[in-house]
Amino acid sequence: MAEQILDQARDLFEGQIDFEGQKLVELLVNVALTLVGAIAFFAGYFLQDIKLAVYLGLIGTAAVFVLAVPPWPFFNRNPVKWLPVGGAAPPANLVVDDKMFR
Amino acid sequence: MYSSVVRLQNTFGFFTTVAFAVAAIIAASDLLAPRTPSVGVLKTTNVQVVRGRPHYYSSKKEEYAIIKFSLDADLSTLFTWNTKQLFVYVTAEWPSAGGHGSGQNATNQAVIWDSIITSPSADHLANLGPVAMKKLRRSAEGKSIDPNRGKLSLKNQRPKYQITHPTGKLAEQDNVVLRLHYNVQPWVGLLTWNQDVEFWKWKTLRNNLSKKFVLPAIKKKEEKKKKAGASS
């Protein structure tokens, strides 16, 4: 019982996502942070307000953190399909380390 | 990017890159803002030389010059969104008595007055009491830049610092001039000192020298005392 709960807590903390999700989150972080930087600079420059630029940059970055860090369901849409455990018997002529596999 | 911790690290890592790049662009954007500071008036109004001691227990007597001056200058173009504060100071300069090869400075230069002008974005950093701070903040309420901050108008300003020379001799020195200097301290970027050479949109500070003047002789207090003693 306790082990189950611990397993769940660990999964939640680790927050693993699938390979497609990893590709997506990388693209998302790069594009979104660049955009936040650009918006912060131009808003600050045209309104001539450095505090606005700083706060826009920080708030935007915080939003990107919220978007990227937790294992949202849309990062887990393509789970890896593993072969079944202990399924079919190994083929008869399988060679491992120059030895015939029984 | 497979786990939360890795995503946290990667996102933060790229955030630092973006922050650095934006800061560099902000610093570079200063070059697009023209700087055309100008000086209307810089002149002495009252010059005195007195004898005094460097500190209370000193037995050494030195000559101190007290130079009152008037200044009219418009430095408002130095205030942009990236300006944190402006440091303005006035120096008195005079050539060395020994000239070249005497082991003395070729030119003597001493600050007689200075002032820090904060931009509204840096008002909270000003070293002021609560009342003056409130007044300063109210003067630029709702404004991110206040061009009025750069307009200086001083009439018969008392110097902050009385100046002397290492030799302790200063009276009757001629060829003394006052010079106005400034330096712009940005939020991000390089500190820029007075513009001695024109640099694209940044013009030099013209007319920032006063006319040459002569420091007067020391006020003769002792003679007056003697006279007063003789007459009584």
UniProtKB/TrEMBL annotation, chain A:
Pfam families: SPC12. It is found in: Endoplasmic reticulum membrane. Keywords: Endoplasmic reticulum, Membrane, Transmembrane, Transmembrane helix. One of its GO terms (cellular component) is signal peptidase complex. One of its GO terms (biological process) is protein targeting to ER. It is a multi-pass membrane protein. The keyword Lipid metabolism does not apply. Its main location: endoplasmic reticulum. The chain crosses the membrane at residues 27-47, 54-75. Belongs to the SPCS1 family. Component of the signal peptidase complex (SPC) which catalyzes the cleavage of N-terminal signal sequences from nascent proteins as they are translocated into the lumen of the endoplasmic reticulum. Dispensable for SPC enzymatic activity. This is Signal peptidase complex subunit 1.
From TrEMBL, chain B:
It is a single-pass type II membrane protein. It is found in: Endoplasmic reticulum membrane. Keywords: Endoplasmic reticulum, Membrane, Signal-anchor, Transmembrane, Transmembrane helix. The keyword Transmembrane applies. Its main location: endoplasmic reticulum. One of its GO terms (biological process) is signal peptide processing. One of its GO terms (cellular component) is signal peptidase complex. The chain crosses the membrane at residues 12-33. InterPro entries: SPC3 (IPR007653). The keyword Transmembrane helix applies. Belongs to the SPCS3 family. Essential component of the signal peptidase complex (SPC) which catalyzes the cleavage of N-terminal signal sequences from nascent proteins as they are translocated into the lumen of the endoplasmic reticulum. Essential for the SPC catalytic activity, possibly by stabilizing and positioning the active center of the complex close to the lumenal surface. Essential for viability. This is Signal peptidase subunit 3. It comes from Parachaetomium inaequale.
